[in-house]
Amino acid sequence: MTALDFPTEAARRLVATALDEDLGPDGLDVTSTATIPADQQATGHVVAREAGVLAGAPVIDIVLAGVAERTGGRPPAVDVRVADGTRLQAGDVIAVVAGATQQVLMAERTLLNIMSRLSGVATHTRRWADALAGTGCTVLDTRKTTPGLRALEKYAVRAGGGTNKRMGLYDVAMVKDNHVLAAGGVGAAFAAIRKRHPDVTIEVEVETTAQAIEALEAGARFLMCDNMSTDLLRETVTAARGWAAERGETVEIEATGGLTLEVAAAYGATGIDWMSVGGLTHSSPIIDLALDLV
């Protein structure tokens, strides 16, 4: 995926599930259909209640189209006024929707739930990206995502200025301690993956400088330094890059484990390329968004 390719098909699947939950087997909003005439029209503003970074604006159209499909009406028109990745201030109008009042209100909670979640991830990611500015290090996400929301949450990471590490178990091989133990060593694990999957990127987790050199000698050129202090990480980076330079090669180095925003810049300054943070997707609070009829 490029920077902000929106995962439309993943969004459609999520919206279908969310609307099934909200509208039930009969596609019904008992409050709106009882209190609002079917031909009544309304205009609504999707607005930010607090500052943050926007992600998920394309969901508005998808949710409204999903409601229209279930109710047999024409989808409300949508005018998105703020692009994903934009910093929001409280009161900003993100989009204007105009159409049948019933449909707008049926769609309200589903589109807000998704956008609030994605904007929360983007906002959290932006804090990390800002903390790492000037260090040469980029923040990465992990596989610690909400089941069913991975493509969308990883999109939100990109919207917030981060980068996706891998989408799943299928696109990057990561050799961790359990793999080393089961395979009989770093070299055996690396060789087995390279034989079975000759073109896949292989990353090896290390906890000491000696393990880093061992991984390089086994063929690894992508290291994940786990739970290292800044001093140990700096030492490992120097040793690994020196080893690679002597052979006319390069090595990518990632730090992970126990990282916080308070120490992000210090870790970024050790010379690493990447910093992976599971909290981008598993611990981001939502951003408060609303849909107000005007």
From TrEMBL:
SUPFAM superfamilies: Nicotinate/Quinolinate PRTase C-terminal domain-like, Nicotinate/Quinolinate PRTase N-terminal domain-like. This is Nicotinate-nucleotide pyrophosphorylase [carboxylating]. One of its GO terms (cellular component) is cytoplasm. Hexamer formed by 3 homodimers. Residues 29-119 form the Quinolinate phosphoribosyl transferase N-terminal domain. Belongs to the NadC/ModD family. GO terms for biological process: NAD+ biosynthetic process; quinolinate catabolic process. The gene is nadC. Keywords: Glycosyltransferase, Pyridine nucleotide biosynthesis, Transferase. It catalyses: nicotinate beta-D-ribonucleotide + CO2 + diphosphate = quinolinate + 5-phospho-alpha-D-ribose 1-diphosphate + 2 H(+).
